[in-house]
Structures are given as structure tokens and as C-alpha cells.
């Protein structure tokens, strides 16, 4: 009975791994950036160890530094946020156009959909996902300067 229902509703028990766009992953993969992020995370780990040791010290210094930061950076941060929102919209529109153009070229389509290309794209995507996971965690913990 379960098999009949599976057939009726076109449900396949074997799930295929989601394909990542190989061309997009190639353009997004940057060895230096990945290495830089790894080094940033290591540096952040060291900073957090220092902060952990200092948290018992003079909190008035910490309060003064935070107040000064707000005064010096409030407008800059608002401007950066608006620029990122604008870039978000532009990037989404352009990527959709590029994906449509990519589908028109059969030879290119065959290459980017090959098993090797798909595997490599998924691995590059996983690098970005792990990086984003670390950055997201740091952001959730109110650690500044890591979310791209």
C-alpha cells in the first residue's frame, strides 16, 4: 500500500543531493578568502580568550568604549546597511538573468551538470555554509566584524 501511494504521488524514496551551480560556485570560490576566514576565526578565538580573562576587570572602560563606538559608527553602519540592501537586490536580479542564459548553452550545461562539477560545486558550497555557520554563531553571540 505504501508503495502504491509513493507511486501515485511521485514520491521517490531515494533523495538525490541538491545540485549547486558549478559556475556560480567557481565564481564565488576564493582560496585566499577561505584562508583569510580561517585565520580570522583563529584570531577571534584568541580575542575571545583575552575577553574572557578581562571580563572580571574594570567594566567602566568597556562601557566607555561601547558608547564611543556608537557615536563614531552609527551613521557609517546605517549607510553600509543600505548599500548592502541595494547590492542584495541587484545581485539577485543579475544572478537570475545569468542562470537563464546558462540554460541556453547546451555544451556548457553538460559540463556544469557533470558529476565532477556537481561534486566540486557542492564542496565549495559546503565551505561557504560552514563559514556562514561560524559567522552566524559569532553574530548571534554579538561578536562584531565577521558576518559577510
Average pLDDT taken over every residue: 81
Query: Major β-sheet, in short?
Result: none
Secondary-structure class: mainly alpha
Please tell me how large the radius of gyration is. 22 Å
Query: What distance lies between the first and last C-alpha atoms, to the nearest angstrom?
Result: 49 Å
Residue stretches low in confidence (pLDDT < 50, at least 5 long) are: none
Range of helix content: over 70%
Per DSSP E runs of 2 or more residues, the count of β-strands stands at: 0
Judging from the principal axes of the Cα atoms, what is the shape? elongated
Strand content: under 5%
Order of helices and strands: HHHHHH
Amino acid at each position: 500500500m505504501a508503495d502504491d501511494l509513493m507511486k501515485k504521488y511521485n514520491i521517490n524514496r531515494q533523495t538525490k543531493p541538491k545540485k549547486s551551480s558549478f559556475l556560480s560556485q567557481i565564481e564565488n570560490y576564493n582560496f585566499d578568502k577561505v584562508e583569510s576566514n580561517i585565520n580570522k576565526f583563529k584570531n577571534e578565538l584568541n580575542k575571545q580568550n583575552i575577553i574572557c580573562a578581562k571580563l572580571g576587570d574594570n567594566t567602566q572602560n568597556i562601557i566607555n568604549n561601547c558608547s564611543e563606538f556608537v557615536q563614531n559608527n552609527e551613521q557609517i553602519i546605517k549607510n553600509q546597511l543600505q548599500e548592502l540592501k541595494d547590492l542584495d537586490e541587484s545581485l539577485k536580479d543579475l544572478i537570475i538573468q545569468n542562470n537563464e542564459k546558462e540554460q541556453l548553452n547546451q555544451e556548457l550545461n553538460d559540463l556544469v551538470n557533470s558529476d565532477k562539477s556537481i561534486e566540486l560545486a557542492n564542496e565549495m558550497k559546503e565551505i561557504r555554509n560552514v563559514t556562514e555557520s561560524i559567522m552566524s554563531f559569532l553574530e548571534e553571540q554579538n561578536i562584531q566584524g565577521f558576518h559577510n
